Structure to design on (521 residues):
């Protein structure tokens, strides 16, 4: 009966994204809902039939075939779309082909631009991109970003409503509009990966899937001749290099300092190599974006010997370009590594961050290194009173015991 | 060994809001479940029933009346069945209990009358 082995990981998510993109081209972005409904019905059909029949030899072909029939039904019910039958047939034929075609990749790119365009409220762009292009569901998006499902759903409804009013063309924007539009896309991909300042991280597994989706989309963007700008490559480099260390789960300098040794064996060599290739491409030209700086920092962490002076130099530039308490905190850690704990402590002093365990935890570590065990223990105690991840909590308690002896 | 019928009941709306990943996981679990049963020689068959109300046949005053089953108004559908082999109800229920269908519907378990 069913051979489970032939099921590709995340096949449904991937196929959902591909099919929604193509159908949105045909139905028009104003009918994004229709495209999503057709795809959802095809997946449900599989859910209800495959348990009895087993997974078909060509699951993708099966899903596309069902979606095609549902799409044709949709056209019959929708007078304004009646002329699209041939498009639907051509789309289904192309999608069941052996290799992903250029049209298919272009459709996904165009859909990304639709999701990230100015008519869509900025707080809805990440969710809309993940939902339509990535095939993620509302509950998953909510879990990853610790939002209420109802809030995410509401944002999506509002975003689609705006698209119905704006009726944007389904295209990669023309040269005049491209820089701003691309910036918005890059911001959305960056936001999929990074939560600026949050101690309450969402569920790890789905977050990891979303990070890999951001990497996939960054690749898609940089592959396109008009979109592979140095800035786009810099972001792609950053995402690849951060993604390579996902399994090691160390997400900022503070944790790095605290947990000291990351297991380099868990790093993904393939992603690192791809990250450095993007970094090369990012260096062509004079553009020095925030993504360049952050990618440079990520690269310096990956070097055999962590290059702290280089990291400090990049953080100085980053703090200039994007002043934020979290950047300042990470810069203080780099400064401590270069000039010693007292210098780091002096840099920490003016930073204010509410309920952010990394600030007192970092202070405690630097106090300990500067030879002030009492001040260190007191800072660790403050960190433990805040929300913080379990491994860090254990490490902090351990450090307090060490200091007491 | 006695045969048992597992009738799978569910709401027709059940997966409306599921995420693609959830649907894939349930199909995968189904695959593992039926494979496990088949390997132990416990699975004797199964079919998906079409999503419509079927036909209801009843004797009328001037012959048999064939009517469409009520589908559109139903809150619940019989979506399919499996035939399993088990020594007794207890074993049959244990096998049925592990069926992924229970994540979104309920199962009616019936023993067939042995032929001999």
């Amino acid at each position: 009966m069913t051979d489970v082995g032939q099921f590709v990981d995340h096949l449904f998510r991937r196929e959902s994204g591909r099919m929604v993109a193509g159908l949105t081209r045909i139905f028009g972005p104003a009918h994004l809902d229709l495209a999503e409904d057709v795809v959802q019905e095809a997946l449900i059909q599989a859910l209800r039939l495959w348990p009895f029949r087993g997974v078909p030899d060509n699951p993708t072909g099966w899903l596309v075939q069902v979606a095609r029939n549902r799409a044709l039904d949709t056209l019959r019910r929708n007078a304004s779309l009646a002329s699209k039958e041939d498009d639907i047939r051509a789309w289904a034929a192309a999608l069941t082909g052996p290799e992903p075609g250029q049209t298919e990749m272009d459709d996904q790119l165009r859909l990304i631009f639709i999701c990230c365009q100015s008519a869509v409220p900025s707080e809805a762009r990440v969710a809309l991109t993940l939902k339509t292009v990535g095939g993620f569901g509302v509950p998953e998006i909510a879990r990853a970003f610790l939002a209420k499902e109802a809030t995410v759903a509401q944002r999506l409804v509002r975003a689609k409503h705006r698209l119905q009013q704006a009726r944007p063309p389904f295209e990669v924007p023309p040269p005049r509009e491209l820089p701003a539009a691309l910036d918005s896309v890059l911001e959305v991909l960056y936001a999929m990966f990074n939560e600026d300042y949050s101690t309450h991280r969402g569920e790890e597994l789905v977050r990891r899937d979303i990070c890999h989706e951001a990497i996939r989309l960054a690749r898609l963007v940089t592959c396109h001749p008009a979109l592979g700008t140095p800035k786009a490559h810099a972001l792609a480099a950053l995402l690849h290099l951060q993604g390579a260390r996902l399994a090691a789960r160390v997400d900022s300098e503070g944790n790095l300092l605290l947990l000291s040794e990351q297991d380099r064996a868990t790093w993904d060599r393939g992603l690192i190599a791809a990250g450095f290739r993007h970094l090369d491409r990012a260096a062509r030209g004079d553009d020095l974006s925030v993504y360049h700086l952050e990618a440079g920092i990520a690269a310096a962490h990956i070097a055999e010997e962590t290059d702290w002076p280089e990291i400090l130099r990049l953080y100085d530039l980053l703090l200039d370009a994007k002043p934020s308490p979290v950047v300042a905190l990470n810069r203080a850690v780099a400064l401590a590594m270069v000039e010693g704990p007292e210098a780091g402590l002096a840099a920490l002093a003016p930073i204010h961050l509410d309920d952010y365990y990394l600030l007192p935890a970092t202070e405690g570590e630097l106090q300990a290194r500067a030879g002030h065990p009492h001040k260190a223990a007191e800072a660790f105690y403050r960190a433990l009173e805040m929300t913080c991840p379990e491994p860090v909590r254990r490490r902090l308690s351990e450090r307090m015991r060490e200091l007491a002896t | 060994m006695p045969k048992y019928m597992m009738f799978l009941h569910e709401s027709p709306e059940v997966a409306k809001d599921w995420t693609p990943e959830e649907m894939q996981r349930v199909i995968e679990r189904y695959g593992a479940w039926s494979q496990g049963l088949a390997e132990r020689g416990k699975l004797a068959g199964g079919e998906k029933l079409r999503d419509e109300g079927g036909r209801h046949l009843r004797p009328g005053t001037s012959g048999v009346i064939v009517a469409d089953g009520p589908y559109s108004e139903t809150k619940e559908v019989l979506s399919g069945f499996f035939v399993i082999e088990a020594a007794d109800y207890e074993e049959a229920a244990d096998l049925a209990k592990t069926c992924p269908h229970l994540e979104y519907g309920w199962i009616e378990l019936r023993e067939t009358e042995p032929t001999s």
Observations:
- Chain A touches chain B at residues 1-4, 7, 10-13, 15-16, 40, 43-44, 46-55, 135-140 (CB under 8 Å).
- DSSP finds 20 helices and no strands in chain A.
- Chain A has a mean pLDDT of 89.
